[in-house]
Amino acid sequence: MDTTDSPEPLPKGWHKTFYTLWIGCFITGMGYSMTMPFISLFINELGTFNRFELNLYSGLAFAMTFISQAIVSPYWGNLADQKGRKLMCLRASGVMACTIFITGLSTSVWMIIGMRFLQGAFSGYINNATALMAGETPHRKSGWVMSAMMTAGVTGNLIGPLIGGALSSHFGYRIPFFITGGLMFLVFITTWTNTREHFTPIDKEAMKPMKDLLHKIPNVKIIFAMFITTMIVQASVMSIDPIVSLYVKEMKHGTGDIAFVAGVVAATPGLGNLLSASKVGHIMDEIGPERVLMIGLIIATLLFIPMTFTTSPWMLAFWRFLLGMTNAGLMPAAQTILTLDVPDEAFGRIFSYNQSFQAAGSVFGALLGSVISGVSTYSMVFALTGATLFINIWIVVIGRSRKKVHS
Q: Structural domain boundaries of the chain?
């Protein structure tokens, strides 16, 4: 990894902190994807449900985490600006270790939904780790570091479904939850012992209101455009996740190793993201994050057209692989724009607001996927998701045009 060519000195302990948080984000992403693609099949074992009920409960199980996350993220953001991002990483990994493990002990769908809600209220490891590294890294390396941190999560998302699918097929759907809980406990320990944050605490009384800090930002409109972009991009990712195993089951007519194939379909975006993230990060540092974001949104919108009409799980996996390569430039670009325009003293709050929008996107996407597939068809989910990305393109265009007016 190229981390030494910046003329600005890196803070003491930067590399150890970076690699520790990278591994922490990797395990967090892997643990999530080890369990989530199969949660609908887990729910199906806990009762007798018709098609609509199973799709709805699967969507709720996904959405509850992000509903609570959206509600409490601003509170955690204020606390992060006062106490630092390391404490937020410890809070997230510690509580997630407990809630994910307990989810594996669930005896009803409502116990799963309840644990997912509690997990969301204390989650946020990847976002806080990213914010911590953003604050520790010189601006000229921000694009690469944001992409590298995003790569950690997507690499985990790539491996997780394959491991989760194999474990679920041989040992049942509970085992991945138990393993994920244990791994998150290891993340808590390593983050506690190996990371260092050069952070100056801000007294609550000394914290400036966000409305005052917003006046320091050259173009506030682009910040809000990035919030909306984060929400829509996350929704496009999440719209298929709650029902991917059910969609694969339908396309395979209920025969074959459904859990394994669903794991492959769920993993392919992560593989595409992994292969292109580093290159996209360097390109972002060269041509700017806004251009990368616009190109990525256009390509992603076009890719949802063939996904709408595919009838093969392997073709779906192929198109999702290309989507993953494209997505490597979307979320990191939005986050990089935030790091370049936001004052350091507002980092925690801005990233927490961004996390709230990301959580809202997860809720919107999960419910869109589960409800639309329940009342219509699975392919309709892809059509509507592509339409939301098309709207997002115009939102970014408006934000960029206003920036040119102000510049």
A: 14-197+208-406
Contact 94, 143 (CB under 8 A): no
Residues sharing a CB contact under 8 Å with residue 255, sequence separation 6 or more, in sequence order: none
CA 300, chain centre distance (Å): 17
Query: How far, in Å, are 62, 81, 84, 345, 391 from residue 203 at the CA level?
Result: 36, 9, 12, 11, 41
Q: pLDDT (tens digit, 9 = 90+) per residue, 223-246? A: 788 889 989 988 887 787 767 777
Q: Which two tokens stand for residue 8?
A: 């600005």
The predicted structure's pLDDT at residue 97: 94
Length of the chain: 407
Alpha-carbon gap, residue 79 to 319, rounded angstroms: 41
* Greatest CA separation for the chain: 62
Q: Is the pLDDT of residue 318 over 80?
A: yes
DSSP character at residue 123: -
Average pLDDT over residues 292-309: 91
Closest CA to 385 of 317, 315, 292, 303: 303
Residues 299, 320, 67, 129, CA torsion sign = negative
Tokens matching residue 297: 């949104």
Where are the alpha helices (H) located in 104-206, listed in sequence order? Answer: 109-121, 125-136, 142-171, 175-194
Q: In angstroms, rounded to a whole number, what is the distance separating the alpha carbons of residues 362 and 230?
A: 10
Planar angle of CA 209, 214, 216, nearest 5 degrees: 110
Contacts of residue 125, defined as CB under 8 A and 6 or more positions apart, other chains included, come to 24, 25, 28, 89, 92, 93, 96, 187
Residue 359 confidence class, pLDDT cut points 50, 70, 90: confident
pLDDT digit string, tens, across residues 366-403: 778 878 887 888 888 888 889 999 999 988 888 766 55
Distances (CA, A) of 94 to 48, 164, 191, 316: 34, 22, 10, 36
Q: Return the structure tokens found at 120.
A: 């969301």
- Write down the architecture of domain 14-197+208-406 according to CATH: Up-down Bundle (1.20)
Tokens of 353: 């607001």
Q: Do the beta carbons of residue 289 and residue 333 sit within 8 Å?
A: yes
CA distance 136 to 401: 31
